[in-house]
Amino acid sequence: MDVTFKVIELVGTSTDSYQAAIDSAIERATKTLKGLEFFEVVEHRGHIRGGQLVHQVKLHVGFKIEDITG
Amino acid sequence: MDVTFKVIELVGTSTDSYQAAIDSAIERATKTLKGLEFFEVVEHRGHIRGGQLVHQVKLHVGFKIEDITG
Amino acid sequence: MDVTFKVIELVGTSTDSYQAAIDSAIERATKTLKGLEFFEVVEHRGHIRGGQLVHQVKLHVGFKIEDITG
Amino acid sequence: MDVTFKVIELVGTSTDSYQAAIDSAIERATKTLKGLEFFEVVEHRGHIRGGQLVHQVKLHVGFKIEDITG
Amino acid sequence: MDVTFKVIELVGTSTDSYQAAIDSAIERATKTLKGLEFFEVVEHRGHIRGGQLVHQVKLHVGFKIEDITG
Amino acid sequence: MDVTFKVIELVGTSTDSYQAAIDSAIERATKTLKGLEFFEVVEHRGHIRGGQLVHQVKLHVGFKIEDITG
Amino acid sequence: MDVTFKVIELVGTSTDSYQAAIDSAIERATKTLKGLEFFEVVEHRGHIRGGQLVHQVKLHVGFKIEDITG
Amino acid sequence: MDVTFKVIELVGTSTDSYQAAIDSAIERATKTLKGLEFFEVVEHRGHIRGGQLVHQVKLHVGFKIEDITG
Amino acid sequence: MDVTFKVIELVGTSTDSYQAAIDSAIERATKTLKGLEFFEVVEHRGHIRGGQLVHQVKLHVGFKIEDITG
Amino acid sequence: MDVTFKVIELVGTSTDSYQAAIDSAIERATKTLKGLEFFEVVEHRGHIRGGQLVHQVKLHVGFKIEDITG
Amino acid sequence: MDVTFKVIELVGTSTDSYQAAIDSAIERATKTLKGLEFFEVVEHRGHIRGGQLVHQVKLHVGFKIEDITG
Amino acid sequence: MDVTFKVIELVGTSTDSYQAAIDSAIERATKTLKGLEFFEVVEHRGHIRGGQLVHQVKLHVGFKIEDITG
């Protein structure tokens, strides 16, 4: 039977790097979501606080679903 | 009173066709979501396995809501 | 610890104006979602019924999360 | 039978506001076009004359048609 | 002499499929417009009514013109 | 009173150059349309016939209108 | 002689509305920049603080220049 | 070891349908290219000849490579 | 040491051609800016005055900087 | 039988003009590629060397193929 | 009183990495610009010199302003 | 004489990071392609396998050519 995925949008943050912001969001997602299959980065922006960067990386994360909830 | 819609992103799949992938995702959504009103196709991609296509169609699906949940 | 945000897509509507459609969606979101932090308008379209406009404004709304749900 | 819509592009203008530029274009369109059904804003730009803004809002406006003319 | 084309925007609809919505709009256009030469699909969206899809496919359709009318 | 513009899409062609394709379309438009005010180039493509280019330049052309026709 | 414009990017803010954020940025620009001629809105986003919106509207603002400075 | 993919752009054509144009291009690609893994549709346009559509579907097709050639 | 570039946006104008509008803006920029390195065209639009085109070409122009000024 | 096209990306360069950069790339392509049918300009950028422009025009060029090679 | 931001475009470079190119541009900006608040990455490209990458990362950087200068 | 570049699309992969996926694809390209000059990142997506990310970075890579091959 054909599977269906749901895609949600997350913003991971890190004061270290682009890479750490991605890893942070995915790590948190894997704790509570089953069936994670793919991701896509759609935006890299952030804040500057006292000369330090706070990276904000927007991700689309997809996972298999049986019952679709809103 | 003015209504509010929530829009979620789904990826329907099918080994048959673009059309079947859309129908499959909408059919599954209608089983559990009330108040479905509109959809939009935003991407058509897929995998090729042994010369056969697995269509993956990304859809935005909108439905009326009373209480917004995350 | 680095925070994570979830972003959902809403469509606010109003027969009055663009501004009222935005306010309406955000007002409803603040009733049930905690930790709302940012929004972005991504589309302004609508219907015309008997010469009157029904504004539909699509918004992305972000809020802090601890546990990510689908 | 399946209906067909034609979509035309208009630019409404106003020295007052974004909202007034939209209303002005739609009001004029409803005078001569039958079957108006939907609109979409695609651009908000304008001129600055002596410190005052002249808003120019580009709209796509759709209406049902029987016979398509160029 | 160099030719000029005019391009108009149509939305074909169908309760059957993406393909039928395209065919329906082009068939209607060929009845009244001479010199049709090319088309491009720019959007596939639609409504959901009682679980059934109403496909709305936005097309750009180009045809040769001698005298340009607004 | 606030003015309204209509914008139409034309494709000018030329075997000479990008510039000639634009000039050709505008020249033809000025013969039959009153109140031409602005243009925008949205695409430069073309055909290659026996090693020679046929430039096709898609233009949006705007003009003032009193009565909006479809 | 052909004129040259420089375009700068501003973000106007307002707790009132989209329109007020635009007006605020343009008003401030007209105090110090001569030869302002045109603007374009490129983004409408914002923050939510205690249920209240802080609108942030990104504008491109163009003005005539004689000598280009970085 | 980390794999590398090359992605090429093809345009499949068909007088039948969108779906047939895709299948036609992929079928031809599978004859001569090894390691095909994924595809993405990026454009659906076409010609109209005597009222009949010639569908042209632009696809990106990816396959594993060992040695990259230009 | 790694260099940094600043990029500014200019609009060159010409009643002659697209090419002349670009040349005009770059010529003016080279008079006052040191270290010009690259450019990119991002828009070609214009006005029509009495049947004559006034080309407006928007350019991004980059140059090396030591001290970044706003 | 339905034909298939392959599309490749080229960057033509010229110290003269936008037009010359396009002509240069197409002329070179026609020397070695058979069945060239269409092109599309997707980017116009360049370098500035001693006040002189080096135009770089990115083109997509399509040609009929029998056997698809990577 | 509502604040206004100015946004400028910088290109940071590094032979090390994407991350280092960003850090380099922001570090230089913080030396001379006060009130830096946010950034956004809009492009990651670069040169290849003798097999080595020179990363060029285009950033938009925003800062509070009192008096807007061109 | 004016040079011509060909641009090909590659997808580098890595289980480590965004940066490693880029380096991996460029390293492989430099083994077999002469005259590599520039690259651009156009997409960062990937798979999630057992909680681990497989980064897929799509790159455009350009190199000088004498004879254009398909």
Shape of chain A: elongated
Query: Which CATH first-tier class of chain A would you pick?
Result: Alpha Beta
Helical run tally of chain A = 1
The secondary-structure class of chain A comes to: alpha+beta
In this structure, how is the largest beta sheet of chain A organized? 3 strands, antiparallel
List the helices and strands and how they pair.
The structure is a homododecamer of 70-residue chains.
Chain A: E1 4-14, H1 18-32, E2 36-49, E3 52-65
Antiparallel strand pairs in A: 1-3, 2-3
Characteristics:
21% helix; alpha+beta; 3-stranded antiparallel beta sheet; homododecamer; Dodecin subunit-like
Outline the structure in words.
Twelve copies of one chain form a homododecamer. The first copy, chain A, is α+β, with helices and mostly antiparallel strands and 70 residues long. The first copy, chain A, has a single domain, classed as 2-Layer Sandwich (Dodecin subunit-like), CATH 3.30.1660.10. Helix content of chain A is 21%, strand content 56%. Chain A has one helix and three strands, in the order E-H-E-E. Chain A has a three-stranded antiparallel sheet, with helices on one face. In chain A, strand 2 and strand 3 form a beta hairpin. The radius of gyration of chain A is 14 Å and the shape is elongated. The model of chain A has no long low-confidence stretch (mean pLDDT 94). Chains B and E meet through helix 1 and strand 2 of B and strand 2 of E. Strand 2 of chain C pairs antiparallel with strand 2 of chain D, so a sheet runs across the interface.
